Amino acid sequence: MSDMGDRPSRGVSSNRRVEAGLEHEMRWWSEGCTVAGLDEAGRGAWAGPVVAAAVILPPDPDLLAQALAGVDDSKRLRPTAREQLYDRIQAVATVAVGVVSPEVIDEVGILNATYRAMRAALVALPQQPDALLIDYLPRPLGDWPQQRLVRGEQASLSIAAASIIAKVYRDRLMVELDARYPGYGFARHKGYGTAQHRRALDALGPCPIHRRSWAPIRQLRLPWENGL
């Protein structure tokens, strides 16, 4: 088959993937509702904040098929692809983020902190949605009409877009924090529990952005705490 023959089929395939990812959104759009997709990044990390993103896509499947081809669960994308898609999502969607600090995570627990980050993202939106699509959480978020979808990043384009926004935003924060707290490798592992991170903790002890309630951090001293 020639190159000319291949191109249309790839375009149709991309359009179909986007349309399949809009099934839940289109149910709300058909009722004249705006819908926000929500997801978080950093929930399982040893250090740094948890970040949630809220994304309202325009109710235009044809536009989205062109602008957001390639949007997927952020964990299934390479960093360069996430960065590119981050800009493309920002260009066509209404986007906001919420950030909850390690101190609050230690105080209220990661699940409650995740809900707080999502509420903060919703409050930061310039317009409030009529309904929510959320990557699965065990209890509802506020009083909005909502669907909490298992593997939501794969089931909903709005949630997948939110996963990319949250991941890229948090990764950039962790690169900034790496410069502030050198030696831990935050720019590389983004606060997650890698072997490099474990070795840095053994050598340096935890720093102020580590989650002190989390093993293996809670048994280690905080050498910089008094210097803040």
Care to describe what's here?
- The chain is of the alpha/beta class and 228 residues long.
- It has one domain (3-179): Ribonuclease H-like superfamily/Ribonuclease H (Nucleotidyltransferase, domain 5).
- The chain has ten helices and five strands, in the order H-H-E-E-H-H-E-H-H-E-E-H-H-H-H.
- The protein has helices at 3-20, 23-29, 61-67, 79-92, 102-108, 110-124, 152-155, 157-180, 186-189, 195-204, and strands spanning 35-41, 50-56, 94-100, 131-135, 146-149.
- Strands 3-2-1-4-5 form a five-stranded mixed β-sheet.
- A hairpin with an 8-residue loop joins strand 1 and strand 2 (50-56).
- Helix 4 (79-92) packs across helix 8 and helix 5 (102-108) packs across helix 6.
- The model is unreliable at 1-12 and 222-228 (pLDDT under 50).
Salient structural properties:
single chain; about 230 residues; Nucleotidyltransferase, domain 5; 5-stranded mixed β-sheet; 5 strands; disordered C terminus
Q: In CATH terms, what is the fold-level topology?
A: Nucleotidyltransferase, domain 5
**CATH C-level:** Alpha Beta
Number of helices: 10
The number of domains is: 1
Would you tell me the overall average pLDDT? 89
Please mark out the parts with pLDDT under 50 across 5 or more consecutive residues, or reply none.
1-12, 222-228
User: Quaternary state, please?
Assistant: single chain
Strand content: 5-15%
CATH superfamily: Ribonuclease H-like superfamily/Ribonuclease H
Helical residue percent? Answer: 40-55%
**Largest sheet report:** 5 strands, mixed
